[in-house]
Amino acid sequence: MRVNIGISEESRQAIAGQLAKLLADTYTLYLKTHNFHWNVTGPQFNTLHLMTEEQYTELALAVDQIAERIRALGLPAPGSYAEFSKLATVEEAKGGESADEMIRQLVIGQETVVRTARAAVTAADEASDEPTLDLLTQRMQVHEKTAWMLRSMLED
What we know:
Blueprint: H1 9-39, H2 45-72, H3 81-87, H4 99-126, H5 130-154
Helix pairs in contact: 1-2, 1-3, 1-4, 2-5, 4-5
Protein name: DNA starvation/stationary phase protection protein
Organism: Woeseia oceani
InterPro entries: DPS_DNA-bd, DPS_DNA-bd_CS, Ferritin-like, Ferritin-like_SF, Ferritin_DPS_dom
């Protein structure tokens, strides 16, 4: 059945394409955060173990919201590692990172997701796609705040 929500097919495809990048970056950051949760060691273990659990739990909910928005626009959501690796700009963890390096990488990942969300705003705004704009605004707020909190852990 044809999607008739007041947004043209061309605009829906453009928005969904931007959201697919956001989904890939968010999922990659989720995986990286979960990896660090499992593998953190050292004096900051308890703090980082609990903090990363909060973060990956929030990211797990976010990937669902982003994918469902793509589906509401009438397009398929990417859902494989192969698709995500083509779309994502968040880098995967290499392994063996110190706790401070994990924090640095998570800051970079959070900020990358903010930039990906920000890049999607234009397409959504041009189509007057308020639900997507709302989703993007919420995602940027979460990632900016999380990046700030993580950065604060690195300052003396």
